[in-house]
Amino acid sequence: MSKAKPPAITVHQDVQFFREALRFTAAQSGFTERLIEKDYFCTVLLAYLDATAGADLVFKGGTCLTKVHSELYRLSEDLDYTIPVPFETSRAERSRRVESVKAALSQVKQSLPALRVVEPLREANNSTQYVATLAYSSIISRKDETIKIKVSLREPLLMPIAKAHARTLLLDPVSNTAVVSPLSLSNIAKTEAFAEKFRAALSRRDVAIRDFYDIDHAVQKDGLRPKSDELIGQVKQKIAVPGNHPVNISDGRLTTLRAQLEHQLRSVLREQDFAEFDLDRAFSIVAEMGKAVE
User: Fold this and answer.
1) For an engineered disulfide with 128, which of 78, 139, 154, 259 has Cβ 3.0 to 4.6 Å away?
2) Which domains does the chain have, with CATH numbers?
3) Is residue 256 within 8 Å of residue 211, measured between CB atoms?
4) Which pLDDT value is given to residue 3?
């Protein structure tokens, strides 16, 4: 069942104001105008999907961590969701459960003319994940920029779904206040979100530097306690989900991460935040968790 009509987020329709707001926000925040613009369009899409894609859809992942559970320390380019299902859910049932998302995306062009689907929602990983790509015309880069949507139908959640507000970085250049009001969304709980981050850092086949950055930032700035029994217990349960790759905290994994620092991390951070990041420290935190869950 779809929800009420999505809130109208139309700041981008006033191109002159939007451009001034992007420029002002960049000066205030230290993020690039391109990333601020993408964060804005991610919010536009979040609001639309929350209202149209069915009550089962739960926001998760790194973008959820920074927009909901922290203070917009890293600007992302993807939106990750889950539709919680039992492990034994059939392929046909998973396909049925994602139909509301497909229907919502099929109407994007009519409802959100600034966005369009360039890769329709498609099945991946034996129907445990569905992926789509949308695009918008950037007034900053003067080319199409993309937002990838990933919907996981792989596992049940360990904690109750949380209702919390997702923030948007864009500021009014006159009042210096948020242009877009926070959105109330269904989100994965914070502890479980970090349990999934540790699982990704420990076992993702294609290791990603952003997972290690998010964990390190949470430990250094947000008070995350990686040695807490609750978190370790949830990481163990996440690692045990069928289909995961084995835990990998090898030197080779660290070498791969070093190669990602410039091109995959620096581009989504402020310079000061990038300078403060210590990959060896982050890897050590993840390695300790790996030992704890063995």
Assistant:
1) 154
2) 1-188 (3.30.460), 190-294 (no CATH)
3) no
4) 53
